[in-house]
């Protein structure tokens, strides 16, 4: 059902990720020009992520007919009456014709409409170009936007932000982290609170190998995956489930363990679950938070 007006005018708001979920949505990796070796490695790790999240909440996986995957979940008989709606944003493959990950995203534009139709939720249309990883909210009116924010920083709770960090002044990430730290240190949230900043060190740095690049179909339809490319690996790219923190692990034991320690302190009432082999996800771009989307409970 197409809704008129804006969500806020009709009493809707976007809850924070730590508020209760009904379920989690995921998409199944398939494109051979984005996922190496026909996506078999990526699919293996996606399955691990879905399994981990399913210990805390229902998971629904969207797949093409050629890759149909059934994820069991209990149906919601009262979905139409829930005070939930979805926004059908525009999408341009993370950058458009010149900078996007691939050239044809025409089918992607139907995903939100399809999901909202299946769930029988009201739908708001919006021309703004957006994807899930571009926005984090604290559920109280504050938000972080612009770019792939879920690789850089996120809210742990109102007034508390986790920030990707490195102490290596020779790393290009250092300047970005310092700038972000300065901005956040001088910012207040919608309630006027100064932000507490928790530093979460990045792994590596990590780079795409010759073997990994060779496994991607370089057919000109998608952004080239070149050997030696710096991987956008970040422990901030985790998912908050109902009682669980699903966090990527990159095989860098020092920083893998440190990330678990920091996240355990930031979320003392949650179980921190490690997903080994998350490098396969970052090879395709992004990580666990990028491939998941919570559906709020009511």
Automatic annotation (TrEMBL):
GO biological process, any: putrescine biosynthetic process
UniProt entry keywords in alphabetical sequence: Hydrolase
Record GO terms (molecular function): protein-arginine deiminase activity
Name by which UniProt lists this protein: Porphyromonas-type peptidyl-arginine deiminase family protein isoform 5
Native source organism of the sequence: Theobroma cacao (Cacao)
Top-level taxonomy: Eukaryota, Viridiplantae, Streptophyta, Embryophyta, Tracheophyta
